[in-house]
Design a protein that fits this description.
The protein has helices spanning 8-34, 88-93, 99-103, 157-192, 195-222, 225-254, 259-287, 291-341, 345-348; strands spanning 38-45, 57-60, 63-73, 80-87, 113-120, 125-132. With 361 residues, it is an alpha+beta fold.
Length: 361
């Protein structure tokens, strides 16, 4: 079997072609990246930018939209000025304005847009974070005119923690002084309390309560409960019988054939007859010319009218008396029911208010 010798010329051509292809691809990608149009923006920070270097990315929620191009001191010699080159197409996609407005720095900056220093992991390498904040803090005040393309900044998370720590550290001495003053005040109040007097008063109170309990037990022991229950039962029976009789009497008086109804019917009949006589007498007076007869008849008419009015008043007063009698009977019934439910009501005192019985008028 014959072994062909390697063609080193072909191998060299293959390696050279691959190397040129790789270089061309890298050159194309680099040229495309360098050819992206950029817009310059300036931000001022009122904190240290240690860890932020030139070329650090500018990101919007993880998406790179530019790089840091310059870091220097602001004209007021207090703030730090950071200049960034942001890609025009990325800014347009963020709806920050049209290409022409962004090129001329005429696009208005949204009021909730802020630039913040952020840290990558635990390495300490920082980058610029552009995002929309809810109720953002006011940016650092500028003692000079802001340049075109100014983007306001927001304190970083580390800056906020640092400010909170310093605030807490400054307030700690005052808090300790207030606690010390409170402890001293409490100590003085405790020293001013006469514990001996308080103990004596407490002992007197306990003794008085014991005496009251002993006295109450003695009073209860003197009460003949069986005899009291027997008397209450007898009184309750008599009260029920009286209520039954009174209720029966009211039913008879209010019935259609009862004495009250008969009296009312008689009064009504008398009133109607008096009215008829009054009408006939008035007609006779109008037809007669005798003065003496007129005066006599007028007196008779007035007497009949007085009689009719008196009968009507008597009927009304009788109706009111019946209503009062019915209310009294309902109150007695309620008392009897209470005694039946609570035989010891006279010993317990007044019961809680209960709804009054309804009276049928």
């Amino acid at each position: 079997m014959l072994i062909q010798e390697a063609n080193y010329w072909k191998i060299g051509l293959f390696v050279a072609s691959g190397f040129l292809a790789i270089v061309g691809t890298l050159f194309y990608l680099g040229a495309k990246r360098l050819s992206r149009e950029k817009i310059e923006f300036t931000t001022y920070f009122d904190e240290s930018v240690q860890g932020l270097d030139l070329g650090a990315p500018v990101k919007m929620r993880g998406v790179t939209i530019g790089t840091v191009s310059d870091i220097t001191i602001a004209p007021d010699h207090r703030l730090v000025q950071v200049t960034s080159d942001c890609y025009l197409d990325s800014m347009v996609r963020l709806n920050l304005g049209s290409e022409e407005a962004l090129r001329n720095h005429e696009a208005p900056v949204p009021p909730d847009l802020r630039v913040q220093l952020a840290t990558t992991g635990i390495t300490g390498v920082k980058f610029l974070l552009v995002d929309f904040f809810t109720n953002p803090d006011d940016p650092p005040p500028l003692d000079f005119d802001a340049p075109q393309g100014y983007l306001p900044s927001a304190p970083s998370t580390l800056k906020s923690l640092e400010d909170g720590f310093y605030t807490l550290a400054n307030a700690l001495p005052q808090t300790l002084n207030a606690i010390t003053s409170l402890a001293e005040t409490l100590e003085r109040q405790v020293d001013a309390v006469d514990l001996t007097t308080i103990q004596a008063k407490a002992l007197d109170l306990v003794t008085h309560v014991d005496d009251l309990v002993v006295s109450a037990n003695g009073k209860l022991a003197q009460v003949d409960m069986p005899q009291l229950a027997k008397l209450l039962a007898e009184d309750l029976t008599a009260l029920k019988e009286a209520i039954w009789k009174a209720d029966k009497l009211l039913d008879q008086m209010e019935s259609a054939e009862g004495p009250l109804r008969r009296i009312a019917a008689d009064v009504t009949t008398l009133t109607e007859r008096a009215n008829d006589l009054l009408a006939s007498t008035q007609a006779a007076i109008n037809d007669s010319d005798l003065p003496g007869t007129t005066e006599t008849l007028r007196g008779t008419i007035e007497s009949y009218g007085t009689l009719a009015n008196g009968g009507q008043r008597m009927f009304d007063e009788t109706e009111e008396t019946m209503v009062l009698l019915r209310e009294t009977l309902a109150a007695v019934q309620s008392l009897a029911a209470t005694i039946e439910r609570q035989p010891g009501v006279f010993l317990q005192g007044r019961l809680p208010d209960s709804p009054r019985p309804k009276i049928q008028r």
